[in-house]
Amino acid sequence: MKVLVPVKRVVDYNVKIRVRPDGTGVELSNVKMSMNPFDEISVEEALRLKEGGNATEVVVVSIGPAKAEETLRTALAMGADRAILVETDDHVEPLAVAKILKGVADAEKPGLVIVGKQAIDDDSNQTGQMLAALLNVAQATFASAIEVSEGRALVTREIDGGLQTIEIKLPAVVTSDLRLNEPRYASLPNIMKAKKKPLDRKSPDDFGVSTAPRLKVLKTEEPSGRKAGVKVESVAELVEKLKTEAGVL
Ligand code: AMP
What we know:
nine-stranded mixed β-sheet, two-stranded antiparallel sheet
């Protein structure tokens, strides 16, 4: 079984995000970019499926600028077998991403697609669900455990107030949640080897998908800063402040 893992190049999660002065979005120039953390988790899970004898090949795909090759090379250094870069400088919205991924899946015929539950830049949480609908296959979102056997998968999902385990037929789309696993680091020798692994280049046109935006960003704002706290001398003073100042008692 082949596993397809979409990986997105996003602003590194450690970077303090700055809004562009004209409010059209966030500042991306001279900012460290990395693989979306949920996608690292998906790559790790795909590799574990392969190591456990439940998958034969791990293919990673990214839709983005030429520099997204770095993100793909990171996935290859972790252990993925092959990469596909669908190159575009446009800001590609989730529906167009899902349509392109459908094209890739139609060509590659994976038994399982492991998508991140959300990309931490736009926080859309849409691509996996849309892809499952376009492919007309089962979906299991927010996975914290995946067990594959004989054309089926048992997926444990993180839901409000607990965990739910569902059985789905393969092929399917699963979206990974934070507790699915802890991704490995790529070793230096593997980083060197990854430079020679195969990487196919495509364009959205190859899949007949338009990347023209359907949404217009009206404005982007910084969240308002938190007010500084105060230290109180006694419980009585705390209760008094909660009553008179915070108005919560
Ligand atoms: P989103 O729906 O935008 O929150 O993204 C959810 C997941 O879809 C991500 O974690 C990725 O696995 C995948 N995805 C979204 N955008 C891209 C992209 N440009 N290239 C590859 N995968 C993507």
